[in-house]
Amino acid sequence: MGPLIAEDLAVSVMDALTSNICVVDLSGEILAVNRAWMQFSASNAGGAELAYLGTNYLNICRSSTGPASAEASEFSVGMHDVLEGRRDFFQIEYPCHSPTELRWFLARVTPLIQRPRANNAKDTKKIGAVVSHLNITDRKLVELEYARLASTDPLTNLPNRRFFEEYAKIELERLRRFQGAMSVLMLDLDRFKLVNDTYGHLAGDAVLKTVANRCKTAIRPSDLFARFGGEEFVMLLPETDESGAIVLAKKLCLMIESLKIKTDAGTLRVTGSIGVTSVTRKDRSISAAISRADKALYAAKSGGRNMVCIA
Predict the structure, then answer these.
(1) Same domain as 138, residue 155
(2) Are residues 90 and 227 in the same domain?
(3) Whether residues 88 and 230 fall in one domain
(4) What is the pTM of this model?
(5) Would you say the C-alpha torsion 238, 242, 247, 249 has a positive or negative sign?
(6) Are residues 27 and 105 in the same domain?
(7) To bridge 61 with a disulfide, which of 72, 137, 138, 140 should be the other Cys (CB 3.0-4.6 Å)?
(8) What is residue 179's predicted lDDT score, i.e. its pLDDT?
(9) What's the domain range around 204?
(10) Rounded to 5°, angle at Cα 227 from 222 and 233
(11) Of these residues, 173, 231, 242, 257, which one is catalytic?
(12) Residue 186 to residue 203: CA distance in whole angstroms
């Protein structure tokens, strides 16, 4: 096979691949791209149309701005390491959303090795790298849906206990670093077992869903409201001291007491008891604060229910 035919075949192979592919030299300059790369570049509103022949791909990544700029910066470091021989290959997953759809890609950089016809390993040399971007949106959407289901209570559609504890770890670390204030509320519906025993579990489910939906309207986007288990709920309130948490807790008690909950068994009314505590920088874990709030909740139950107690 002659050199010209081999070259044509290589171009045809690249164009047949669905991944976005480009070839760069050792400086990062783009030497060749396939058809998928050109089509994606032309349709991408983020400026990828600049990534054509003669453009330095490293510079494009380094000067990237916007939501994916962190990944672009990391990608440029990884690609540079491959070109310099510090890595055998590099890959990273990154988002590249368009105005009309969510998209994720797997970017991979592998060395481009030139081999003589005699296939003498001693004469091989690296002349650049091959960069591919594989669309992994379908897989990513499935992963995200599984993650959402794993972290969401199916009845109330609130975050579950597992998600709350993981999220609270992050907020507690942030509190340690930047100080500020944070509080935890434990909310339990009063005599909820009696609701289930008297009116049935479907009525009990309706009560839980209604209370959850109503309480969500009373909190800020930065607050986290989760179902902790059974008829018990928990709230994490960043940038909220104890006095602010007490104000919210009393408001929630009044809201729950005023609800007229429609169920198949008729209109029901319930009340809730709430325990409040501040989270401090000395707390070794969020479970310490939860334990205090739980004791305060027990005091509210013992003190007559439908009230707020402080740890």
Answers:
(1) no
(2) no
(3) no
(4) 0.61
(5) positive
(6) yes
(7) 72
(8) 81
(9) 151-310
(10) 85
(11) 231
(12) 23
Residue 47 has a pLDDT of 47
From start to end of the chain, where are the E strands?
A: 20-25, 30-33, 90-95, 104-114, 125-135, 182-189, 224-229, 232-238, 261-263, 266-268, 272-278, 308-310
Q: Is 89 helix (H, G, I), strand (E, B) or coil?
A: coil
Which residues are bridge partners to 32 per DSSP?
Answer: 23
Distance CA 126, CA 120 (A): 14
Shared domain for 130 and 155, answered yes or no, is no
**CATH number, residue 111:** 3.30.450.20
Please check whether residue 99 is in contact with residue 45, taking contact to mean a CB–CB distance below 8 angstroms. yes
Q: What is the spatial distance between Cα 58 and Cα 72, in angstroms, rounded to a whole number?
A: 9
Give the closest residue to 189 by CA, choosing from 310, 271, 296.
271
The reply to whether 173 belongs to the active site is no
Shared-domain flag, residues 130 and 162:
no
Domain count, the chain: 2
DSSP assignment, residue 99? S
65 is written with which tokens?
A: 């701005």
- Residue among 113, 110, 75 nearest 89 (CA): 110
What tens-digit pLDDT sequence spans the chain (311 residues)?
A: 455 556 677 778 888 888 899 999 999 999 999 988 888 877 664 444 545 788 899 998 998 877 677 788 899 999 999 999 999 999 999 888 776 788 899 999 999 998 776 655 567 889 999 999 999 999 988 888 888 889 999 999 999 999 999 899 989 988 988 888 999 999 999 999 999 999 999 999 999 999 999 999 999 988 999 999 999 999 999 999 999 999 999 999 999 999 999 999 999 999 999 999 999 989 999 999 999 999 999 999 999 999 999 98
